[in-house]
Amino acid sequence: MSKNLTTRGEDYSKWYNELVVKADLAENSGVRGCMVIKPYGYAIWEKMQAELDRMFKETGHSNAYFPLFVPKSMFEAEEKNAEGFAKECAIVTHYRLKNDPDKPGKLMVDPNAKLEEELIVRPTSEAIIWSTYKNWVQSYRDLPLLINQWANVVRWEMRTRLFLRTAEFLWQEGHTAHATKAEAIEESIKMMNVYADFAQNFMAIPVIKGVKTETERFAGAEETYCIEALMQDGKALQAGTSHFLGQNFAKAFEVKFATAEGKQEYVWGTSWGVSTRLMGALVMTHSDDQGLVLPPNLAPIQVVIVPIYKSDEQLAEISSVANELATAFRNLKVAVKYDDRTTQKPGFKFNEYELKGVPVRIAIGPKDLENGTFEVARRDTLSKEIVSKSAIVNYVQDLLTQMQHDLFTKALNYRDTHITEVNSFEEFKSVLETKGGFVSAHWDGTSETEEKIKELTKATIRCLALDRVLTPGKCVLTGAESTGRVLFAKAY
């Protein structure tokens, strides 16, 4: 199996696009800007989904499902949210087609089937969900309302890239309602921490937790908490967001509750989400010029066993040992595949599983049977070891744990060495162009300066890190007073 991947050094963007397609994760579809997620890519997404779903349920949330369509008047109810997404909305205006009298065999929109009110295809679900919550909340006894949905959304993007930015994508969106402001803020922070936990312990991606500036905040939110990751090309990627909505949506949709004292008050809201964009983050954080590198905790196949043989008799002997080994792994909940295809040679299989990022490969040949050993190859370091039959199961279990740890440590070292403090705008521009990564710089706190820096450098404020130490200084662009450094970066 020939990889022929463009290297990251040649063209990082091209390398990424080729890798996503060649590793069978996804491909462009017949619908402009939309992707087909292939079985192998979807298997990774399913593992992500399963872990996140478990974490949501452990924090008291339940899954539900809400409509794909939102009436235009309902969508407009919360003005900031509607304005924020207006340019990305797909709209349904008619409900029927008919035969075109001028073009036999073709269809046309039936002008008599115009909807009384246009429907927005959801870019996000706050409007439809909060209009529903109005019916679900009457008393303080109905709160908190902790709901999540797994869904697809549509945002009409002009420039698309597989997983990172597509017109339709899969995601989860949590929407909660609370009796007090403090509870809602606590929920927003809790879910940001759940995302950070998932990113670091399952995706092996270190993240910076922070809050967005007013300019970068979710439309309709009072505060947006985020986790920011750094890709190998020095660009940042927003890996998850959690929004404190205040009472904005409650007021827009008249969601009130009777307090214990009998007073009528508006509820306090949150929303939070991650999407298939995490697949792009996974690819770009760990992979190399040979293909995907997957952290064991999210790999659909953690161990692959490949037989090396010349005759049917040898294959039968190897298969007996391989199937026994595969059973031992399965009993320990290790995802294993024994690839006994006779249509492909071992070299092809080695290349295929290297490209697909399978963490551990075990090769078994006639000499291994004689010696009672196996050849074990690590995908992350491409190193090999000879391991005895008696030790193989424990060795591989320990190796998977070690690889998960090593991938995180490698990504953390890269991230930490790519956070650079600067004190002048010349230094700011130089670091962005020559080194990349996060640029830690003083900012005067105005959206005008933020916008000017973006215009001049294409760098945005990724977040105000929650753990930042406030030290006064001078804004790198204007020289005005600054209370503390913020993190800038070019981003996906």
Structural account:
The chain has 492 residues and is an alpha+beta fold. The chain is 35% helix and 27% strand. β25 (473-474) and β26 (481-482) form a beta hairpin. The protein is globular and about 80 Å long.
Low-pLDDT stretches: none
Q: Looking across the biggest beta sheet, what order are the strands in?
A: 3-9-10-16-13-12-11-24-27-23-22
How confident overall, as mean pLDDT?
A: 97
- Tally of extended strands? 27
Tell me the strand percentage band: 25-35%
Q: What is the gyration radius calculated from CA atoms?
A: 26 Å
Provide a compact summary of the structure:
With 492 residues, the chain is an alpha+beta fold. Helix 2 (39-58) packs across helix 6 (181-201).
Give structural attributes.
single chain, 492 residues, alpha+beta, 11-stranded mixed β-sheet, 14 helices, 27% strand, globular
Layout of SSEs?
Blueprint: H1 12-22, E1 26-28, E2 35-37, H2 39-58, E3 62-63, E4 69-71, H3 72-75, H4 79-85, E5 90-94, E6 97-99, E7 107-109, E8 114-121, H5 126-136, E9 145-154, E10 168-178, H6 181-201, E11 208-211, E12 223-230, E13 236-246, H7 248-252, E14 256-258, E15 264-266, E16 268-275, H8 277-286, E17 303-307, H9 312-331, E18 336-338, H10 346-355, E19 360-364, H11 366-371, E20 373-378, E21 384-388, H12 392-416, E22 419-421, H13 425-434, E23 438-442, H14 447-457, E24 460-465, E25 473-474, E26 481-482, E27 485-489
Parallel strand pairs: 3-9, 17-18, 17-19, 22-23
Antiparallel strand pairs: 1-2, 4-8, 5-8, 6-7, 9-10, 10-16, 11-12, 11-24, 12-13, 13-16, 14-15, 19-20, 20-21, 23-27, 24-27, 25-26
